[in-house]
Specification:
heterodimer, A: alpha+beta, Sulfite Oxidase, Chain A, domain 2, Immunoglobulin-like, five-stranded antiparallel β-sheet, 8 helices, about 30% strand, B: mainly alpha, two-stranded antiparallel sheet, about 30% helix
C-alpha cells in the first residue's frame, strides 16, 4: 500500500493542478459536482499528459483504479456497531455500472474480523450423518467438477436502518449491503456424494474458521440444489474479506448463511439453532413474536443514479440507472416513477438477465429543473412485486430489522441535489 | 438417497481409468482423506438444542460470577447490562412487542444450548475458543441465574443443558410466511395510483449520515 501511495504521489505531481482541483472540490461522496476544467488541457491546447512518457508495464503488477476514482470505496457507518471487527461496510452501488461488482468493492460483513488463513493449511471437514467423515484440502476441492455462476449476495439487514423512516442519506448506506460476482467452485451435492449422506440427514451446519466460528443451519434440499463451495470470485482467488480461501455460496438466500473461511460441514437430523439464526436474523413482528428461518431475499431494486450521492448536474437528458434482483429467480420487469408512485413507466433491462443475479436497468429522463420523487419497483418471474414500505410495515411493524426490500424514494430537488425521503 | 446408479456409473468410469478397481464404488471421486475421531472431536464443537454435542462438564452461577467478571464484564457490564454499544445479556423481559424491544439472552434467546455454543466458540471477543467447558457452563449458568431462569447453585452440565426452558422459547414461528405485503392485483398499478406523496421524513434532517472525509 505504501508503494501505491508513492505511485499516486508521482501521478498527482504530474497532473498536480487538474488532479488537486478535481479531488479537492468534489469531496469524496459527492462526485457529480462540476469542477472548473483547466483550459490548458482543452482543445486546441496540448493536454499536460500528452508530451511525456507514462508508467511502464512494471509500475503496477496488480493494477489499481485511476487515482481520480479514489472516492469509489466501501464505507462504513461508525455508530452502527461497537467495533470494526464485528461490523459492516457498504458497496458504492452508485458508482458502478453493469451488473458485476469489482472484487475490492464488495461489501464486507465480519463477526470476528478477517482471518489470515494459510491456504496450504486450509482444510474442509465434512462430518455427522455421513458414510465417511472426510477432510479436504483446497487442492482436493479444485479436483471436483467445477461450476461457474453469477449470484448476488445480500445481507438480510440491507436497508435495516430505514424501517422507521428515511435515515441515511445515501444510496450506498441504504442499499449497499449487496454485491454480485461470478463464483467458481464445487457444487455441494458433489461433495455430499463423496461423503455419502445418510438418509436421516435433513440439515447441514456450516461453520467458519474465523474468530466468530460463524455457524448456520441450512436445510438439505437447498444443499442438494444449488449451494457451492467457492474458491474464486470474478476469475481470481476469493478476497480475504470474502472468505479466502473458500466460502459457502447459498444462491438467493441471506448473506449471513454464506459462511466464509468455511472449515466444516456437519450433516444432522435437526437444525442447530445457532446464535445467528435465533438471536439474530429472526424478524420481530408487531406482537413480539419473531419469524424464524426467513432465508430468501425477496425482489428489490434501487435507483443508483440519480441518488443522494449522484445529483443531477444540469437540465436536459439523463440516463436514470439502477439495479434489481430477486432471490426467487430472474427479474422480469422494473417500473420507474418520477412522481412518488402515482404513475409508472417500464424501464429497459440490460442483459444478461440471470437467475438470482443483479440486473441493470436504465431509463432516459428529461429534467427541466422541477422537483422529482423517483422510485423503482421490481418484479420477478414468480410474479412477486417489490412492496411499498407502508405495505411492509402493515404486515410486520417496524422492529424486524431484516428483510426490508421496500421501494425507496429519492427526492430530486430543484437545484439537482438528491435526498432520501419517506412519503406518507 | 441419491442417484446411486448414476453415481456408481460415474465412479466406475473414473476409478477404472485413474485409480484402479479396488476403491469403494460409492465414492465417486476418491478425493479427501478419512477424518480420524480425534480430528473430528477437535473441530466438532457445536451444541444442539437437545444437548447433543455438549462437552462433558459442569458449572454453576456462584462460580460463574467470578469468571464472568474476569472474561465478560468489560464489554457486557458487571450485571450483563452492556458497556457502550456491546450487547446487553440480561433484562428486556416484556419489551419484545414494545416500540423499543431489548433482545437479550434472557428476553429473546430460545435455547440455552445456543448460549453455550456461541460462548464456547466465539467468546471472549478476540480470544475465541479459550474457555474450558467447565468455565463455559459456569458463565452460561451465571447468565441464566441473572435472568431468573435457574438458581445460583444449579449445576448446569452436558446432561441437563438440553432441558433448560428459556422464557422466549415459544416466541418464534415457522414456516416463513412470505411472500407477504403484496398488492391486491397481480398487475401493479401504473397510472393515477392512489398513493400518499407528502414528504414526511428527510434523511438530511436526521443528520446521522457519515460525512465524507476531505
Amino acid at each position: 500500500m505504501i508503494d501505491q501511495g508513492n505511485k499516486r504521489g508521482t501521478l498527482s505531481r504530474r497532473s498536480l493542478i487538474g488532479g488537486a482541483v478535481a479531488l479537492g472540490s468534489v469531496g469524496l461522496a459527492k462526485t457529480t459536482v462540476a469542477t472548473e476544467p483547466n483550459t490548458d488541457n482543452l482543445p486546441p491546447n496540448v493536454s499536460e499528459w500528452t508530451p511525456y512518457l507514462g508508467d511502464g508495464v512494471d509500475a503496477n503488477p496488480y493494477g489499481m483504479p485511476s487515482p481520480f476514482e479514489e472516492h469509489v470505496i466501501r464505507r462504513n457507518v461508525e455508530w452502527l456497531t461497537a467495533s470494526t471487527e464485528s461490523s459492516v461496510n457498504f458497496t458504492p452501488l452508485h458508482e458502478l455500472e453493469g451488473f458485476v461488482t469489482p472484487n475490492g468493492l464488495c461489501f464486507e460483513r465480519h463477526h470476528g474480523g478477517v482471518p489470515e488463513v494459510i491456504p496450504s493449511d486450509y482444510r474442509l471437514m465434512i462430518n455427522g450423518l455421513v458414510d465417511r467423515e472426510l477432510i479436504f484440502t483446497l487442492d482436493d476441492l479444485k479436483r471436483f467438477p467445477q461450476t461457474n455462476r453469477f449470484y448476488f449476495l445480500e445481507c438480510a439487514a440491507n436497508g435495516g436502518m430505514e424501517w422507521r423512516g428515511a435515515q441515511l442519506n445515501g444510496c450506498q448506506y441504504t442499499f449497499g449491503m449487496v454485491h454480485n460476482v461470478q463464483y467458481t467452485g464445487v457444487l455441494l451435492k458433489d461433495l455430499a456424494r463423496e461423503v455419502g449422506v445418510k438418509p436421516q440427514a435433513k440439515w447441514i451446519l456450516a461453520e467458519g474458521g474465523d474468530s466468530s466460528g460463524m455457524n448456520r443451519s441450512i436445510p438439505i434440499e437447498k444443499i442438494m440444489d444449488d449451494c457451492i463451495i467457492a474458491w474464486a470470485m470474478n476469475g481470481e482467488a476469493l478476497r480475504p474479506e470474502q472468505g479466502y480461501p473458500a466460502r459457502l455460496v447459498v444462491p438467493g438466500w441471506e448473506g449471513n448463511m454464506w459462511v466464509k473461511w468455511i472449515r466444516r460441514l456437519e450433516f444432522g437430523d435437526m437444525p442447530y439453532m445457532a446464535r445467528e439464526e435465533t438471536s439474530k436474523y429472526t424478524d420481530l413482528m408487531k406482537d413480539g413474536k419473531a419469524r424464524m428461518f426467513t432465508w430468501v431475499m425477496e425482489a428489490k431494486s434501487v435507483i443508483t443514479s440519480p441518488s443522494p450521492e449522484k445529483s443531477i448536474p444540469e437540465k436536459g437528458i439523463h440516463q436514470l440507472r439502477g439495479l434489481a434482483w430477486s432471490g426467487r429467480g430472474k427479474i422480469t420487469r422494473v417500473d420507474v416513477s418520477l412522481d412518488g408512485g402515482r404513475n409508472w413507466k417500464t424501464a429497459k433491462l440490460h442483459g444478461p438477465v440471470l437467475d438470482k443475479c443483479l440486473t441493470r436497468f436504465t431509463m432516459p429522463i428529461e429534467w427541466n429543473g422541477e422537483e422529482l420523487m423517483i422510485q423503482s419497483r421490481a418484479m420477478d418471474e414468480t410474479g412477486y412485486v417489490q412492496p411499498t414500505i407502508d405495505a411492509l410495515q402493515a404486515e410486520r411493524g417496524v422492529n424486524s430489522i431484516y428483510h426490508n426490500n421496500a421501494i425507496a424514494t429519492w427526492l430530486v430537488n430543484k437545484d439537482g441535489s438528491v435526498d432520501n425521503v419517506r412519503l406518507g | 438417497m441419491f442417484d446411486l446408479v448414476k453415481t456408481s456409473l460415474v465412479s466406475s468410469l473414473i476409478l477404472a481409468s485413474i485409480a484402479g478397481p479396488s476403491l469403494a464404488s460409492d465414492r465417486p471421486f476418491n478425493l479427501g482423506k478419512i477424518a480420524t475421531a480425534e480430528e473430528v472431536s477437535g473441530w466438532d464443537i457445536d451444541v444442539r438444542p437437545d444437548g447433543l454435542g455438549a462437552p462433558v462438564g459442569m458449572g454453576n452461577a456462584i462460580d460463574g460470577e467470578e469468571i464472568y467478571a474476569e472474561r465478560c464484564a468489560a464489554c457486557h457490564g458487571d450485571f450483563g447490562e452492556a458497556v457502550d454499544r456491546w450487547p446487553a445479556l440480561v433484562g428486556g423481559e416484556g419489551t419484545l412487542a414494545s416500540h423499543d424491544p431489548v433482545k437479550t439472552t434472557g428476553s429473546y434467546w430460545p435455547y440455552a444450548s445456543t448460549m453455550f455454543d456461541y460462548i464456547y466458540r466465539a467468546m471472549p471477543f478476540g480470544e475465541a475458543q479459550s474457555l474450558t467447558p467447565d468455565e463455559t457452563y459456569q458463565i452460561v449458568a451465571f447468565l441464566l441465574y441473572m435472568s431468573d431462569i435457574v438458581e445460583d447453585d444449579f449445576n448446569l452440565s452436558h446432561e441437563n443443558i438440553g432441558t433448560i426452558k428459556m422464557p422466549n422459547r415459544d416466541g418464534f414461528f415457522l414456516p416463513d410466511p412470505r411472500p407477504d405485503a403484496q398488492p391486491a392485483s397481480a398487475e401493479p398499478c401504473m397510472i393515477n395510483c392512489n398513493v400518499a406523496t407528502n414528504i414526511i421524513v428527510r434523511a438530511r434532517d436526521i443528520d446521522v449520515t457519515p460525512e465524507s472525509e476531505s
